[in-house]
Each structure stands twice: as C-alpha cells, then as structure tokens.
Design goal:
InterPro entries: Methyltransf_16, SAM-dependent_MTases_sf. 29% of the residues lie in helices and 23% in strands. Helix 4 packs parallel to helix 6. The chain contains eleven helices and 15 strands.
C-alpha cells in the first residue's frame, strides 16, 4: 500500500448543535442525509487519485479543517483521524469576513484567529504519514537497521507541532512507554474538543502507553513552565514533522529540541519542500550551529512505498539544480539529529 493510499476521507458530518466559540468544532456529529454531499464525496475521491495522475505533484497535506480521515494501517487497522479545525469556523458574519481577508481587529488588537491559522495545524501533513509509516514498520519487523531507525518501544516520545497527532497515535500503539503530544498554545488542535483529544479518544482506548497533551510555545517558556522544567532532558525520541516553514522560529524550535532531548536521544526531522528547499536547509544549519548534530539524512520519494518495491531514496543536498515547485513536491527530507559532543572544557548548554 502506497503512503497516500493509506488515507481516505470519511463522509462529511453535520454538527447537531450550533457552533460554539471554541477553536475547534463540537465533537458531536451525525451522518448527513443521503446524497447531501455527493459532490464533496466525488471531489474527495478524485483527490485521492491525484498522486497517480500527476506523480510529480504528490500532496504535501491532506484533509479539510474539521474533516475526518481514515488512516489504514496494516498493523493497527483503521485509525480515525480528525483534522484540526481553525478558529474561523466558530465565527460568523462580519468577523468571518475580517478573518478570511486577514484584516486587523477594529480595536487594534492582534487577530488571534488569523495568527492561529498561520500555524497550519488544520491539515494532516504527508511528513506525519512518513513518520507514522516508519514507526509501524519498525514495530512489525523483528530487527535490522530500518527497524532500529524508527523503533519506539519503551521509549519516551515527544511530538512538537503535532497538529492532528498521527505520529503520536502510532507511537502509543507501537508501545512507547510515554507519549507527550504538543502544539502551540493558540493551536486549534488543543482543548477538550480539539483534534488531538478526539484522535486519542478514538484510537488509543486499549493502549498501555501514558499519553499526555500539552500546549508548548517553542523556546520561550522552558524555564518558567513547570512541565518543561520537570521534563528537561527526559525524552529519548522527539518527532518534528513539517514544522520548519517559519524561518523566524528555527532557533526557538532547536532550543526546545535541545531542552527536552535525553543525552542519547534522537530527533526525527521530516519535512517537505512546499515552502522551498532553502528554508529546510536553513533549519539544519541553525540546528548544527546551536549544538545538534546530523546523524543520518536522506530524501524520500513520497510516492514510493516499502510495500510496493521499496522506498525510493536519494542523497540530501541543500541545493538541487533545476528544482522548482513542479518537481519538488514528491520529495521530503528525513533526518535523525542528536546532541553534538560538548567541546573540550565546556559543558552542555541549556
């Protein structure tokens, strides 16, 4: 089964009560009447075939805000994944128009809704599916380098910028000892009615892993947040899938990674090139300059699959001649980072 073929949309659902002021839609839904969304369903079906029709144009993200998707796992069965909503879905009238057009509030305050949308939490990213697939295969295989690369059994896992949290869900199913799922405090994925809580509830009822959901702003609350203080250097595996398009946040992201990473821990970095290769390369430069090391790195063709003749890989380069939007979408970079050895005579920084 190819990576994208694992995913299919569930019939769209209608809310049974008026929308609230929460950032995410209410979790109480009913199926729509017969034929009510035939055009939407046809569009979803066509979208699922796009990777086969246009192989260089593999989708970087999936789903619509608030939509439910079915992720078919050969090992864990069908996982129901709610795509995060975004705050504008709970707004109406004039405010909805302001939000849609990105206009400032009349009182001069920061438009928190628009800022929340800039987080791009309201999609399921292909990079997250790459991590989920690797975790699942490692839990299936008995040994070998690939199994060791992705194994999370008995590991303490932290996901940054989780969005829908698919890698965290699969980590718990793969018997991680503990999984902490985090997103920005303003992310619509958080909260009791958010996508993360919904996905944990629907898919992890029988999991023995300890699962924790936390808001976290990269690099800014490390010395003031009691949770961050008590978990410094404690996570043996950190997942960060498609968290790199905001160049201004690279340093803060690295600070968070270094803060939580255990001495011998590993960070999985997976990123598509939808905002350009240069931004992703810039993150690696920042990570190395701030005390992380690249232990392994390669590029993967998103349209290839281990089940269909094996993944197609190539060497990572920070610049690729002739690459443009039309031929970079089918590729992502996969890397493992760790702490760089401390320089002689110095201690590890915080």
């Amino acid at each position: 089964m190819s990576l994208h073929a694992r995913l299919r949309p569930l019939p769209r659902r209608l809310a049974t009560q008026p929308p609230s002021e929460s950032a995410a839609p209410t979790p109480h839904f009913e199926d729509p009447p017969d034929g009510a969304n035939a055009e939407d369903d046809a569009e979803d079906l066509f979208s699922s075939f796009l990777p086969h029709l246009f192989p260089d144009d593999a989708p970087q993200f999936h789903g619509d805000p608030g939509q439910y998707l079915l992720y078919s796992s050969p090992r864990y069965g069908e996982l129901q994944i709610m795509v995060p909503s975004y705050p504008s879905q709970s707004q109406s009238g004039a405010r909805s128009k302001e939000i849609a057009e990105g206009l400032p509030r009349s009182d001069g305050q920061v438009n928190q809704v628009e800022e929340g949308r800039k987080l791009f939490a309201h999609f399921l990213w292909s990079a997250a599916m790459v991590v989920a697939e690797g975790l699942e295969q490692a839990d299936t295989e008995s040994g070998g380098s690939e199994a060791e690369f992705w194994k999370v059994q008995n590991e303490k896992v932290l996901e940054l910028g989780a969005g829908a949290g698919l890698p965290s869900i699969v980590s718990a199913l793969a018997n991680a000892s503990m999984v902490t799922i985090t997103d920005h405090p303003s992310s619509p994925a958080l909260g009791p009615a958010g996508a993360i809580a919904s996905n944990v509830k629907h898919n992890l009822s029988s999991s023995t892993s300890i699962v924790d959901i936390r808001p976290h702003e990269w690099g800014t609350t490390l010395t003031t947040d009691p949770w961050a203080l008590s978990n410094k250097g404690s996570y043996t595996r950190i997942i960060a899938a498609d968290c790199y398009w905001m160049r201004s946040q690279h340093e803060n992201l690295v600070r968070t990674m270094k803060w939580f990473l255990a001495p011998e821990g590993k960070i999985w970095v997976v990123a598509g090139f939808h905002t350009g290769r240069e931004i992703v390369a810039g993150f690696f430069e920042t990570a190395v300059s701030l005390g992380l090391k690249i232990e392994s790195i390669y590029e993967r063709d998103l349209n290839s699959s281990a089940e269909e003749g094996g993944e197609v890989r190539r060497a990572w380069v920070s610049f690729r001649e002739g690459e443009g939007p039309e031929n970079r979408r089918r590729w992502c970079v996969v890397a493992v980072l760790g702490h760089a050895p401390a320089a002689a005579g110095t201690g590890a920084d915080a």
